[in-house]
């Protein structure tokens, strides 16, 4: 910004702005602004009384003309037309009023055209000239128009009469000179009316009457002279008055010691103004050069630097013209010598307020619109640059791939050539008493007869004989298939077949068999060497290998391009599905509190108007007579501050209230709370979290947070259970939302960093919470807030309790589990900061469309085919019967928490229902592990084709089970969240779960939970049960298996439905970000 060059002005700019905010009318330039306006007012009064005493040209004019001149003078003093002011000043100073007159004459071009038209019509009618008195001159005669009569005389007579009358006319003109100007003014209107009538008469009659034509030309010329004279006179008067005003302003400001004034005194947008500086009053008094450097609107808009010139005014006044843009509300400037000497109004800078244009907020919105256009253009340029870069990468990759294909083709040809050369050495033209070919000389595409003596080999007793052949060491596989017929030759058991020699064949390859391919049993393959015959007239060997290399190269290119196109299409589809899933999840997130608050439209757009709907019946404001909306933007940090409280009005739907809010262009988040009164009272602030709605399309993006996760596990490098998956996946999801994320494993050196959020996971990282608060804050690291997440309260309760005390916010991994543990002593006293947020799954790791461990990629669109292929592959891998049976999968750690007694019962019950069952998992307790080993032995003995227990860890097999199973059973006694049921639904498998913790929050029974699912924006998606006994699990498992047997079409639609639900980290990441922001307010 140009103002940065000012040595001291920048130090007090903020002070200046504060003063302006406290007093809107205040201005750093009062010393000259007030004086400027006062002089202007005085001059207007004075000049109204002077009545143009110096204008001798019109002192005999009537009172009407005098009033017009006085009005013109007033206009000069208050004029906002910069071009006129500039011209008057220039003409007055340089004595160029005649030039002004010439310019003005150009404005009467239309009248001259009218006159020309009349003359042309006269010429066309036979007239050769027209005099001012209406006399029309032809070639030999003169027509004098008088009293509507035409008198015709010869030219010579007319000249003589004219000479006699000239002397009398001169005397008359001299007598009438005193009154001519008065008559001209009084007769202007009458002549204008008469001229119009004459022109109308000419236009209507096409050929003008002589008297009309002559009188019309006279009136046109007289009016033109009158109007030109009046304008010329006005310009002279305006220029004189402007010089007088500037002289008075200069004298007045000089007496007061003001160093600055400007003209006109009221500055408006899109106008030229003249700024005057008295050099002798400034720090530049000894400088030969004076320049003005400035910008508009607090130095934010259109900077400029202009050199001043010495003015014509008395004293050391220097001036320049500055154009005020239409967007300006203030002009800020300083003066300097072009180097390092500045006049900056004692460090306050100079400023001139601009009236009648934008205000500050209008200008800010204008800048935002301009910024949005700039961002749009930058985005377009970036996209174009990325497209070009991608195209360049594609070209370079294509060149590299082509070179690789050529190398591979050469290598393949070399390999084939070596093998074929060895084969040629063994090839024959014929073998006595076994086979021969007629004719003996042949080439590619020739038809030949190949003879075979059946009794020479194992086909001696075969009913039929077939040839299975190819060429060039079976290069293209089977290309010759023909049944042989008996020959008439008597010296043996000869059979023959007519075959066409393949084009390009160097060697023929074949065997004989007792039937066609796929049906033959007995072969004669020359003792495993096959039969080989040389093609005598084959193409030159070198030419063949050159062509062969080209064929291989082209084939490799086609295959590669097909692979690339398939991979690209798959990647695009994956990205599209991710995007659509994220959009659906965001919509669900925005609607998740529709029973309390929502917006219309749901996706709030920057620069648009939005309606906020609120239902106080479900909040602390239930029953209040009034509800007030208190709103702002960008996490309450927006430049506009808190909007005025707005009383909400009843909405059409009855239970909700509504209010309308205009969203600014630089908003990225809409923030609001509700109160019972305009000035406060009871608030609904969502239990301290406030209500927030994201804004789309703004010119400002949310600043990223820096979040550090502290954990002893992180998949895949350090993983024991689900904690490692959660830490890695949550970090990726938050990072995808443009925040900075680090994961720290022991040792915990992250405390040396100044982060926004330190997120500790479970009892193993709990000490970090109090270590940070008690020790590291003494070293100035007090910015970060601590969030602590409980993944399982069964372990490390004492450490968890202390971490709860020191954390700013605390969570556990599902809402239901948070309620289940809320009575625990380590939790109960901290419920105000304790929240339940579901875990999610990594949709890149668990993705049936891109899973390399399953045989067929699938989405919800082809879920039936995909799961069928996976089931068949699973049955084959585990040695189960390949049958269309309901298959129950169990993937778990074998602990009492996981309900191992229910697992055992469910295995037997599934087998009783004629289903198949597959279990994958192991037990950390050796006794439980041995117990399941014995069960596996028993099942593999009694139900080997329908049961398989894999008591180990096998990641690839787990993917295949999720895809191949119809049901995934999770009968946990307690489950803080659970990932198994979420992964199952990702693969289109139906979850059968016990109602506890996160299982209850994610699996909605198809028979009993329709309303509960709808409240979460979902549809029912599985089967669940109460209790922890056999009856409970049988109730859910029986309904599931029966639905598979009796309603396959409905069951398949359920598989499709659960695949389309989003159980990734899209939604949990949004909840955690809200929690992080709430923690930062603590």
Core attributes:
flat, six-stranded mixed β-sheet, six-stranded parallel β-sheet, 1082 residues, alpha+beta, 44 strands, disordered N terminus
Task: Summarize the structure in words.
This protein has 1082 residues and is of the alpha+beta class. Helix content is 43%, strand content 19%. The strands form 9 sheets. Strands 24, 26, 27, 30, 31 and 32 form a 6-stranded mixed sheet that branches. The chain has a 6-stranded parallel sheet with strand order 34-33-35-36-37-38, sandwiched between helices. Strand 11 and strand 12 form a beta hairpin. One of its GO terms (cellular component) is chloroplast. Belongs to the glycosyltransferase 1 family. Bacterial/plant glycogen synthase subfamily. Residues 28-41 have a biased composition (Basic and acidic residues). Pathway: Glycan biosynthesis; starch biosynthesis.
Protein topology:
Layout: H1 13-22, H2 30-50, H3 63-78, H4 82-94, H5 97-106, H6 109-124, E1 129-130, E2 136-137, E3 141-146, E4 149-154, H7 155-205, H8 210-256, E5 260-263, E6 271-278, E7 291-296, E8 301-307, E9 309-310, E10 317-324, E11 330-336, E12 342-343, E13 350-353, H9 360-426, E14 435-438, E15 447-453, E16 466-471, E17 480-483, E18 485-486, E19 494-500, E20 507-513, E21 523-524, E22 531-534, H10 541-591, E23 597-600, E24 604-605, E25 609-614, E26 628-633, E27 646-647, E28 649-650, E29 657-662, E30 669-677, E31 680-684, E32 691-696, E33 706-710, H11 722-736, E34 740-744, E35 757-761, H12 767-774, E36 785-790, H13 797-806, E37 809-812, H14 815-820, H15 825-828, E38 834-836, H16 863-878, E39 887-891, H17 900-912, E40 916-920, H18 926-942, E41 947-950, H19 955-964, E42 967-970, H20 980-986, E43 990-994, H21 997-1002, H22 1010-1015, E44 1022-1025, H23 1030-1046, H24 1048-1060, H25 1066-1080
Parallel strand pairs: 24-32, 33-34, 33-35, 35-36, 36-37, 37-38, 39-40, 39-42, 40-41, 42-43, 43-44
Antiparallel strand pairs: 1-2, 2-3, 3-4, 5-6, 6-10, 7-8, 7-11, 9-10, 11-12, 11-13, 14-15, 15-19, 16-17, 16-20, 18-19, 20-21, 20-22, 23-25, 25-29, 26-27, 26-30, 28-29, 30-31, 30-32
Helix pairs in contact: 2-3, 2-8, 3-8, 4-8, 5-8, 6-8, 7-8, 9-10, 12-13, 16-19, 17-23
């Amino acid at each position: 910004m140009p103002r940065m060059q000012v040595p001291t002005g920048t130090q007090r700019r903020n002070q200046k702005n504060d003063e302006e905010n406290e007093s809107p009318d205040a201005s750093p330039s009062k010393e000259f602004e007030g004086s400027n306006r006062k002089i202007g007012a005085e001059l207007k009064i004075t000049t109204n009384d002077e009545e143009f005493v110096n204008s001798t040209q019109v002192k005999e004019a009537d009172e009407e003309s005098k009033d017009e001149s006085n009005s013109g003078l007033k206009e000069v003093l208050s004029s906002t037309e910069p071009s006129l002011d500039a011209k008057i000043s220039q003409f007055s100073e340089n004595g160029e009023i005649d030039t002004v007159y010439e310019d003005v004459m150009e404005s009467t071009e239309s009248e001259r055209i009218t006159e020309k038209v009349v003359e042309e019509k006269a010429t066309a009618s036979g007239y050769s000239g027209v005099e001012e008195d209406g006399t029309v001159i032809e070639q030999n005669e003169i027509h004098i128009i008088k009293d509507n009569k035409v008198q015709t005389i010869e030219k010579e007579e007319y000249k003589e009469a004219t000479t006699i009358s000239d002397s009398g006319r001169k005397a008359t003109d001299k007598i009438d000179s005193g009154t001519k100007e008065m008559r001209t003014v009084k007769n202007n209107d009458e002549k204008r009316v008469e001229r119009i009538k004459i022109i109308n008469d000419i236009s209507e009659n096409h050929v003008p009457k002589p008297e009309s034509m002559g009188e019309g030309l006279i009136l046109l010329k007289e009016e033109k002279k009158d109007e030109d004279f009046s304008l010329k006179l006005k310009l002279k008067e305006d220029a004189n008055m402007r010089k007088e005003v500037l002289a008075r302003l200069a004298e007045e400001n000089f007496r007061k010691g003001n160093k600055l004034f400007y003209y006109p005194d009221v500055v408006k947008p899109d106008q030229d103004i003249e700024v005057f500086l008295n050099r002798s009053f400034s720090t530049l008094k000894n400088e030969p050069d004076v320049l003005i450097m400035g910008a508009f609107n607090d130095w934010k808009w259109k900077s400029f630097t202009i050199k001043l010139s010495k003015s014509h005014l008395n004293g050391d006044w220097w001036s320049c013209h500055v154009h005020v843009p239409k967007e300006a509300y203030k002009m800020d400037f300083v003066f300097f010598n072009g180097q390092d000497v500045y006049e900056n109004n004692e460090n306050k800078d100079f400023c001139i307020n601009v009236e009648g244009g934008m205000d500050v907020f209008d200008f800010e919105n204008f800048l935002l619109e301009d910024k949005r256009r700039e961002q749009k253009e930058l985005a377009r340029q970036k996209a174009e640059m990325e497209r070009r870069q991608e195209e360049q990468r594609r070209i370079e990759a294509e060149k590299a791939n082509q070179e690789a294909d050529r190398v591979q083709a050469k290598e393949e040809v070399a390999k084939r050539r070596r093998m074929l050369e060895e084969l040629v050495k063994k090839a024959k033209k014929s073998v006595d008493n076994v086979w021969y070919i007629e004719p003996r000389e042949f080439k590619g595409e020739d038809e030949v007869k190949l003879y075979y003596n059946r009794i020479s080999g194992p086909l001696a007793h075969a009913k039929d004989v077939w040839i299975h052949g190819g060429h060039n060491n079976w290069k293209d596989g089977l290309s010759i298939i023909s049944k042989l017929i008996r020959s008439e030759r008597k010296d043996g058991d000869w059979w023959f077949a007519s075959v066409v020699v393949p084009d390009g064949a160097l060697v023929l390859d074949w065997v004989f068999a007792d039937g066609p391919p796929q049906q033959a049993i007995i072969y004669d393959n020359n003792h495993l060497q096959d039969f080989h015959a040389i093609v005598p007239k084959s193409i030159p060997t070198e030419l063949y290998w050159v062509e062969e290399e080209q064929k291989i190269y082209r084939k490799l290119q086609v295959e590669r391009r097909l692979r690339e196109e398939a991979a690209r299409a798959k990647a695009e589809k994956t990205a599209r599905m991710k995007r659509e899933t994220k959009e659906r999840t965001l919509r669900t997130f925005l609607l998740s509190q529709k029973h309390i608050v929502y917006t219309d439209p749901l996706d709030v757009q920057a620069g648009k108007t939005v309606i906020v709907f609120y239902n106080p019946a479900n909040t602390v404001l239930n029953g209040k007579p009034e509800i007030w909306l208190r709103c702002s933007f960008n996490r309450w940090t927006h430049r506009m501050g808190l909007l005025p409280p707005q009383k909400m009005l009843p909405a059409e739907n009855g239970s909700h209230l509504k209010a309308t809010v205009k969203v600014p262009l630089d908003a990225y988040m809409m923030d609001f709370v509700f109160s019972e009164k305009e000035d406060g009272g009871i608030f609904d602030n969502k239990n301290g979290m406030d209500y927030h709605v994201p804004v789309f399309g703004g010119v400002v993006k949310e600043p990223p947070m820096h979040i550090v996760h502290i954990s002893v596990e992180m998949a895949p490098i350090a993983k024991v259970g689900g904690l490692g998956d959660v830490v890695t996946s949550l970090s990726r999801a938050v990072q995808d939302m443009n925040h900075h994320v680090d994961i720290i494993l022991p040792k915990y050196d992250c405390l040396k960093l100044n982060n926004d959020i330190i997120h500790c996971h479970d009892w193993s990282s709990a000490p970090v919470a109090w270590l940070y608060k008690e020790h590291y804050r003494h070293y100035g690291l007090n910015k970060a807030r601590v969030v602590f997440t409980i993944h399982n309260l069964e372990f490390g309760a004492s450490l968890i309790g202390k971490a709860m005390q020191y954390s700013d916010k605390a969570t556990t991994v599902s809402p239901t589990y948070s309620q289940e543990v809320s009575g625990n002593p380590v939790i109960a006293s901290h419920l105000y900061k304790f929240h339940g947020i579901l875990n999610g799954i990594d949709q890149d790791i668990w993705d049936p469309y891109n899973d390399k461990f399953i045989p067929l990629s699938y989405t919800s669109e082809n879920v039936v085919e995909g799961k069928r292929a996976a089931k068949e592959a699973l049955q084959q891998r585990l040695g189960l019967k390949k049958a269309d049976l309901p298959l129950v999968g169990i993937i778990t750690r074998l602990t009492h928490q996981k309900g191992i007694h229910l697992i055992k019962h469910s295995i037997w019950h599934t087998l009783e229902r004629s289903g198949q069952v597959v279990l994958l998992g192991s037990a950390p307790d050796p006794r439980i592990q041995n117990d399941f080993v014995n069960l596996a032995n028993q099942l593999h003995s009694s139900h080997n084709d329908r049961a398989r227990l894999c008591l180990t860890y096998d990641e690839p097999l787990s993917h295949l089970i999720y895809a191949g199973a119809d049901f995934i059973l999770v009968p946990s006694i307690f489950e803080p969240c659970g990932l198994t049921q979420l992964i199952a639904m990702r693969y289109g498998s139906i979850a059968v779960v016990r109602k506890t913790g996160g299982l209850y929050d994610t699996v909605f029974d198809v028979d009993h939970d329709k309303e509960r699912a709808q409240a979460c924006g979902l549809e029912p998606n599985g089967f669940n049960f109460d209790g922890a006994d056999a009856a409970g699990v049988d109730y859910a498992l029986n309904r599931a298996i029966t639905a598979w047997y009796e309603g396959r079409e409905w069951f398949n639609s359920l598989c499709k439905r659960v695949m389309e639900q989003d159980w990734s980290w899209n939604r949990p990441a949004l909840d955690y970000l809200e929690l992080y922001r709430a923690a930062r307010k603590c």
